[in-house]
């Protein structure tokens, strides 16, 4: 149990709250849901994220060992061994595939596509500054997966929500990478700040979040949701503004508040907004 606790700390298990609400929203928008589906989606999402995060730590092991910001993570410190991380990854993959199989055939088939993105996104920063977009696309699987898991088919309208997630995560990942600008520049790690400079990177991150907001509004429009969801959307817009104000390029100490707190609030606000939008008649 002590070792499991260390592994869960390594992958920031509590951050599952970022992705889970969007799988649930995808399920809600499908109009096909029950307790069994909800439980299986939860298991699938948590295990999928565990695969992605553990592989990220394994793949970035050497980079993390050199980076002053990450050298105290569990793998570089030796608190968690590589073989233990690999074992946890294999177990998580098995749980993910079993839960997808128990949901429906299409979910099972598409689970291998999801795995491809979960496994490969950690490599992208080694060869392209588009790594932030690739991460956003990977996280955008959450609402698509939630919809398919519940409905057994894929609706094109759910891609609006997926695009919101892609640009939201991609935009924030650009901001988050500002912390490692000097290290990445010296060590050949690709990112938008390295490619275009921190100032342009902040502008692009803001543009990403503006585009994300548009796709969020489009999601609400095409699914004909009530005004509660729009109230939630504008609260999210306000939180995104606060997020950008917190990220001062001269002092990045507050970036973790933007990441841990603001993004958690965004996820919670949206799941509440979509629940009200789906179940409250006005």
From TrEMBL:
Superkingdom in the source lineage: Bacteria
GO cellular component: plasma membrane
Any GO MF annotation of the entry: 4-hydroxybenzoate polyprenyltransferase activity
Keyword flag Cell inner membrane: yes
Pfam families, per database record: UbiA
Cofactor needs: Mg(2+)
InterPro entries reported for this sequence: Polyprenyltransferase_UbiA-li, Prenyltransferase, UbiA_prenyltransferase, UbiA_sf
Entry-linked Gene3D superfamilies: UbiA prenyltransferase
Topological type in the membrane: Multi-pass membrane protein
PANTHER family associated with the record: 4-HYDROXYBENZOATE POLYPRENYLTRANSFERASE, MITOCHONDRIAL, PRENYLTRANSFERASES
Family membership: Belongs to the UbiA prenyltransferase family.
Name of the protein: 4-hydroxybenzoate polyprenyltransferase
Species this chain originates from: Desulfurella multipotens
């Amino acid at each position: 149990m002590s070792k499991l606790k260390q592994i869960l700390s390594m992958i920031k298990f509590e951050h599952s709250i970022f992705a889970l609400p969007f799988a649930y929203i995808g399920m809600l928008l499908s109009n096909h849901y029950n307790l069994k589906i909800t439980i299986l989606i939860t298991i699938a999402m948590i295990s999928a994220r565990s695969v992605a995060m553990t592989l990220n730590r394994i793949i970035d092991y050497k980079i993390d060992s050199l980076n002053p910001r990450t050298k105290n993570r569990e793998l570089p410190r030796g608190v968690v061994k590589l073989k233990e991380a690999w074992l946890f990854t294999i177990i998580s993959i098995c749980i993910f595939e079993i839960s997808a199989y128990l949901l429906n055939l299409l979910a099972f088939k598409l689970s291998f596509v999801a795995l491809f993105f979960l496994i490969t996104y950690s490599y992208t920063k080694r060869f392209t500054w588009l790594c932030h977009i690739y991460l956003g696309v990977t996280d955008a699987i959450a609402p698509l997966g939630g919809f398919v898991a519940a409905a057994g088919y894929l609706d094109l309208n759910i891609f609006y929500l997926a695009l919101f997630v892609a640009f939201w995560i991609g935009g924030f990942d650009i901001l988050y990478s500002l912390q490692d600008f000097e290290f990445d520049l010296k060590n050949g790690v690709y990112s938008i700040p390295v490619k275009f400079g921190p100032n342009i990177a902040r502008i692009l991150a803001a543009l990403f979040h503006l585009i994300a907001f548009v796709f969020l509004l489009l999601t609400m429009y095409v699914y004909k949701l009530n005004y509660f969801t729009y109230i939630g959307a504008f609260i999210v817009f306000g939180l995104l503004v606060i997020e950008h104000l917190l990220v001062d390029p001269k002092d990045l100490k507050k970036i973790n508040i933007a990441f841990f707190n603001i993004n958690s609030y965004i996820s919670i606000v949206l799941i509440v907004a979509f629940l009200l939008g789906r179940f409250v008649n006005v």
